[in-house]
Amino acid sequence: MLGLSMDIGIDLGTANTRVYVKGKGVIFSEPSVVAVDGETRKVLAVGGEARRMIGRTPGSISAIRPMRDGVIADYEITQAMLRHFINRACGRKVLIRPRVIICIPSRVTGVHRRAVLEAASQSGARQTYLVEEPMAAAIGAGLDIWEPSGHMVVDVGGGTTDIAVISLGGIVVADSCAIGGDKFDEAIIRYVRREHNLLIGERTAEDIKIRIGSAYPVSSTEPAETAEMRGRDFVTGLPKVMNLSSWEAYEALFEPVSEIINSVKGVLERTPPELAADIVDRGIVCTGGGALLNGFVKRLSEELGIPVHIAEDPMSCVIIGTSKLFGSPEFLKNSLVAGSIPV
Length: 343
Ligand SMILES: Nc1ncnc2c1ncn2[C@@H]1O[C@H](COP(=O)(O)OP(=O)(O)OP(=O)(O)O)[C@@H](O)[C@H]1O
Ligand SMILES: [Mg+2]
What we know:
flat; 6-stranded mixed sheet; Nucleotidyltransferase, domain 5
């Protein structure tokens, strides 16, 4: 039955889900969003199509992000989303029962892990393995995690920041804080409402963050960049267009960025000295879309006094790392968690 086997890797992220098929590579990346009919709970759209509906749906339809803050907020919708993505990866080859490795944020625990596994087996998975995000991120960033030496990876995703020190293929010290790109967006929304009496949506805030957001103090000698934002005036209730400066965006993002830095400091403080010395030599590696925030790497490096590098293609590290695990018999042997139908 060799010809009928199929290996699928999935990075089930709070903001984006990426899917890999062995032999084909990463076949798609879609926002982790599902549009459902409010009454019947019927799934109407998944991924990019559903995301375009966020904040724009009529009363009867809602566009849901079933994972929030790196945990599963709505497990039925998460299951429906996962089934949709696995079926899409399998195409029409309904007879094939794939092996599936799913990478989940490390805050997903207990019953929610089980919900993920259940959805995979409902979609026909023959065997399912779960891998934790910092491990996959480290492998995908090209770190040699198997050597007896300390590596530190900081994955700033949409929902969480996962921080881990890895040596000899295992996580030695780790922490996960519920701050990531989503909290950056929320901080911008709050700031704009407080300072400008303007209500803006999630997607507008994300757009501003990517265009002019900064984690590093913007130079006062250069003219500040500005971004136009459209929203609703809090006082008059009418639509309004305003500008936000990069300096203001820096101010808005100061707190959530500082929280991430404090969590990284906390992990370093708990790291055994030999491994800490390795990290000082090599530097910290950042992955995840949130690490693309302007000035993030620079601020982290300055505050810690340690070099910090950003991985190549940081948003793909987790799916690349996940897919590499199909080539690791050690991993497959130790982490089979569901489905045991022999090959
Ligand atoms: N250039 C950029 N500047 C700032 N933020 C960015 C940039 N590009 C993407 N992002 C942010 O990265 C986040 C998505 O990153 P990623 O796809 O790694 O998250 P995820 O894996 O879905 O989440 P998690 O790992 O927490 O479950 C979003 O919040 C997005 O706004
Ligand atoms: Mg992620």
